[in-house]
Amino acid sequence: MAEMIVAIPTFKRPAALARLLQALERLDTAERLIVVVADNDAAGHEGYDLCRSLCAGYRWPLDPVIAEQLGLAQVRNVLVARALSYPDVRLVAMIDDDEWPSPGWLDGLLRVQQQTGADVVEGSIRFEGAKTGAAGFDGVNDMRRPTGPVAMLEGAGNILIARSCLERLARPWFDPAFALTGGEDRDFFERVRASGGRFAWSDEGLAYTRVAEHRQSLSWLFARAYGVGNSEMHIFLKYRHGRTARLSEYAKIAAALIGAPLAGLLLAVRPRRAAEVWRRFFRNAGKFTALLGVRYQAYAVHHGD
User: Fold this and answer.
1) N or C: which end of the chain has fewer CB within 10 A?
2) b/e per residue 75-90 (b: at least 16 CB within 10 A)
3) Where is average pLDDT lowest: 44-53, 77-86, 233-242?
4) How many angstroms separate the CA atoms of 42 and 182, rounded?
């Protein structure tokens, strides 16, 4: 039986999924793997059908499943449940369908996990095609850190999770409340940390993604900043931080909402600086609306291949 699972959530991106599956076949590793793909498009199931068509000649055993309930948390939970159904699996690598790994990706993650004993290791992601004007914005900039232990991770797009970590957590592993908002990964990391889990980063566990043109418009970037802030605040509220922490957070939000518009106007002649100011404004606007009970469902709309 395989000792590792590569788990892939997918939704209406058959071309990107095909690119990812081809890259997995080029991995430079001696590990025994099973590739599990959970298709969150129960009606169209193009990802599922693609995997079925590749099963016979693929380098690794392919195990496609349908995740019936729509949502980021739901599809990740299906992947984890499927992975844990294999009794000999000790580690689960999760990579998103719009990414593809470098040949040394998996062994890079493994080395750091073995060296640090971390419960979850995150790998770096290089964003191809990003314009310099989008620097500083979420979702379009390289995610890289020096290899080694870290206090917290950034996202579930490129991670390696120990089975023992997953078995220690109560189900569901990813909170369905964040199904269409995003933030299910950060919430998962908060739960791992609360359970005594440890984190590490592997710069050698490198994956790539390509930034689509429409994701570099200011309207998309500001909407992304708003959504990130909104989900961050819902996570903050979920864990009921103390009075001092809450007052500090509220003060930061107020300062950004009051000061950013004026600063943005003053910096109008310097577009990049102004864009960064407005990014902070929209991120804190998302936090403020979360305090009012609003959940911004950024993933209710499909953003394309």
Assistant:
1) N
2) bbbbbbbbbeebeebe
3) 233-242
4) 20
